């Protein structure tokens, strides 16, 4: 399982979210604390952020821990909405930039922690890569990200071995699902963090329940059971 992080709030630097926290994504790239599948996340990384309404991405197929260029520039890049990930490639999936989250349709940034059998996914000519997460992202974009919870519940029913923790942001909202892996939420004075695992030992981190949809919006946070559990 990869690890991902979302931010919605005031403008903050990318380094303050990804590099500086003691157990942030950089540390999670070699020493995650809650990872159940895989030991480390060395197969690439991506940081997506909104520049006004425009999503921008910086991705690499190399480990985040050694990226001195990103380390140099990240303190100067600031955003109110961020979707970032470090990757542990699923066996047989390509290790390439185009397989690395976040994916985008030009409006949303989207990351996937997990695995899904590509045979249950419809053909996706728009997918950036043949990687399961890229094909899944193309499906979510085609269905509309607002249907994220339905898509995850349907795929989870079709592929019982699927793990479907997804995280998406569009500059004014974050949407995330839990389906087989961990997700934590931190309410800060300046915004909200969603992360596969806490980036520090702040007692304010809340563990999200499995098989739920979490929505972070300017008017509040909602946590809803996914279809089939109601
Ligand atoms: N299946 C995806 C990939 O290969 C995500 C892997 C993961 O969550 N570790 O990139």
UniProtKB/TrEMBL annotation:
Q: What is its EC number?
A: 3.5.1.118
Every copy of the Glutamine amidotransferase type-2 domain together lies at 2-230
Please give the superkingdom of this protein's source. Bacteria
EC primary class: hydrolase
Kindly give the Gene3D superfamilies that the UniProt entry links to this protein.
Glutamine Phosphoribosylpyrophosphate, subunit 1, domain 1
Catalytic reaction annotation: gamma-L-glutamyl-hercynylcysteine S-oxide + H2O = S-(hercyn-2-yl)-L-cysteine S-oxide + L-glutamate
Q: Name one GO biological process term.
A: ergothioneine biosynthetic process
The record's Pfam families line, in alphabetical order, gives:
GATase_4
Task: Enumerate the transmembrane spans.
Answer: none
The record, for InterPro entries, names: EgtC, EgtC-like, EgtC_Actinobacteria, Gamma-glu_amide_hydrolase, GATase_2_dom, Ntn_hydrolases_N
**Record's CDD domains?**
YafJ (cd01908)
> Which PROSITE patterns does the UniProt entry name for this protein?
GATASE_TYPE_2 (PS51278)
Molecular function GO labels: hydrolase activity, acting on carbon-nitrogen (but not peptide) bonds, in linear amides; transferase activity
Known pathway? Amino-acid biosynthesis; ergothioneine biosynthesis
Q: Which UniProt keywords apply?
A: Glutamine amidotransferase, Hydrolase, Transferase
Enumerate the NCBIfam families for this protein: ergothioneine biosynthesis protein EgtC
Q: What does this protein do?
A: Catalyzes the hydrolysis of the gamma-glutamyl amide bond of hercynyl-gamma-L-glutamyl-L-cysteine sulfoxide to produce hercynylcysteine sulfoxide, a step in the biosynthesis pathway of ergothioneine.
The record's annotation in HAMAP family points to:
EgtC
Name assigned to this protein: Gamma-glutamyl-hercynylcysteine sulfoxide hydrolase
């Amino acid at each position: 399982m990869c690890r991902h992080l979302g931010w919605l709030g005031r403008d903050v630097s990318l380094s303050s979210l990804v590099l500086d926290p003691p157990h942030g994504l950089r540390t999670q790239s070699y020493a995650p604390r809650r990872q159940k599948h895989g030991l480390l996340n060395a197969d690439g990384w991506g940081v997506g952020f909104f520049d006004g309404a425009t999503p921008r991405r910086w991705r690499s197929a190399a480990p985040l821990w050694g990226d001195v260029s990103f380390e140099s520039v990240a303190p100067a890049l600031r955003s109110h909405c961020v979707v970032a990930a470090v990757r542990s490639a699923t066996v047989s999936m390509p290790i390439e930039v185009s397989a690395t989250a976040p994916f985008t349709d030009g409006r949303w940034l989207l990351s996937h922690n997990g695995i899904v059998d590509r045979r249950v996914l419809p053909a996706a000519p728009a997918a950036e890569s043949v990687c399961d997460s890229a094909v899944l992202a193309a499906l979510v974009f085609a269905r509309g990200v607002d249907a994220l919870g339905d898509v995850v519940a349907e795929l989870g029913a079709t592929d019982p071995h699927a793990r479907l923790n997804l995280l998406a942001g569009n500059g004014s909202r974050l949407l995330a699902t839990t389906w087989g892996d961990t997700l934590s939420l931190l309410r800060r004075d300046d915004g909200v963090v969603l992360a596969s695992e806490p980036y520090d030992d702040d007692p304010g981190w809340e563990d999200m329940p499995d098989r739920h949809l979490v929505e972070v919006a300017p008017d509040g946070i909602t946590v809803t059971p996914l279809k089939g559990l109601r």
